[in-house]
Amino acid sequence: MNENPNRFQQMCKKLKSSGYKLTPQRMAVIKILSERTDHPNPEKIYSLLKKLLPTTSPATVYKTLAILKKLDEVLEIQYSNQSNRYDGVKPAPHPHIYCKKCKKFSDLELLLHGQLIEEIKDSTDYEIESIYLSIEGICPDCKSSVS
Amino acid sequence: MNENPNRFQQMCKKLKSSGYKLTPQRMAVIKILSERTDHPNPEKIYSLLKKLLPTTSPATVYKTLAILKKLDEVLEIQYSNQSNRYDGVKPAPHPHIYCKKCKKFSDLELLLHGQLIEEIKDSTDYEIESIYLSIEGICPDCKSSVS
DNA sequence: ATACGTGCAAATACTTTGCAGGCTT
DNA sequence: AAGCCTGCAAAGTATTTGCACGTAT
């Protein structure tokens, strides 16, 4: 299922080759990001990080995320006025679907996605950098639960 | 060009019929939203509002936007860690393209959009509510300017 | 020794909320 | 008179920054 079993190594390598130091804190954040497909937010990452390194601070999480984002090793997902979510497993922009009830973000595979990118590139004179597609609704579990 | 010359009246009517009072402040916010296709943020709306009603407060803008959003009379666009943008002219979700340099949001017409919605609805068991598609890049003007 | 990184706390940015006074009906 | 609305200010949330100390090379 895991499309990329070496995200941990990849991210470590990229950090290092970009001139950043591989500290225990950064490695721990990378480890968390490389294993989680549930698009955690900084708070969640921080709470997981604290278990590994009890004295860390949220600032370290934010700083590490900023670096990884700049290196395109993590995808930042903005949604509503909530805190950002991060995807270190699949760092390239890809479609997401979000459940308004359980607040879960999931990946979505779309056959049309490739064609869509084509049409976008053809139909504007913009220099396209990224395409963000996100869908919101109610997931099957939440639909069937009595609310 | 303007697809909907009566947005002002429509929004006023919707407010009223939903049990909200049509105050001068709200009408002024609606007026601004109904005339602007440039997706203003609350600060921009507030600065325009102040010209019409010098004593208003940002809170009034936020409160009015919250109502209009709930009534689906305004579309809220989230982007990056910037303040939200609002579209009162076309309140249904539609694709946007954003220039990273001049920070302009523009609407984008896509032939595939209908098909995309179809595929999304067919390919998941979610109850779909909204589809947000936003593209980021550099607009033609900014591309040609010397930086 | 030097430069980089951490972690605390303060600062910032944006938005929401509480509440007293005012206006409308 | 009652209730909604405004506008101020305070609070809240998410994130960033400044800085002194620590650590690795």
Q: Can you lay out the helices and strands and say which pair or pack?
A:
The structure is a homodimer of 147-residue chains.
Chain A: H1 7-17, H2 24-35, H3 42-52, H4 58-70, E1 75-77, E2 85-87, E3 96-99, E4 105-107, H5 113-123, E5 127-138, H6 140-144
Parallel strand pairs in A: 3-5
Antiparallel strand pairs in A: 1-2, 3-4
Chain A binds a DNA duplex (25 and 25 nucleotides) through α4.
CATH superfamily of the largest domain in chain A: Winged helix-like DNA-binding domain superfamily/Winged helix DNA-binding domain
Q: Enter the CATH topology name of the largest domain in chain A.
A: Arc Repressor Mutant, subunit A
Structural class of chain A: alpha+beta
Largest sheet of chain A: 3 strands, mixed
Q: Estimate what percentage of residues of chain A fall within beta strands.
A: 15-25%
Distance between the termini of chain A: 31 Å
What gyration radius of chain A follows from the Cα positions, in whole Å?
Answer: 17 Å
| Helix share, percent of chain A | 40-55%
Q: State the shape of chain A.
A: globular
CATH architecture of the largest domain in chain A: Orthogonal Bundle
Oligomer: homodimer
Biggest interface pair, residues each?
Answer: A-B, 36 and 36 residues
Summed over residues and divided by their number, the pLDDT of chain A gives a mean of 92
β-strand number of chain A: 5
Order of strands across the main sheet of chain A: 4-3-5
CATH class designation of the largest domain in chain A: Mainly Alpha
- Write down the secondary-structure element order of chain A: HHHHEEEEHEH
Count of the separate structural domains of chain A: 2
User: Low-confidence stretches of chain A at least 5 residues in length (pLDDT < 50)?
Assistant: none
Q: Given the structure, what is the number of helices of chain A?
A: 6
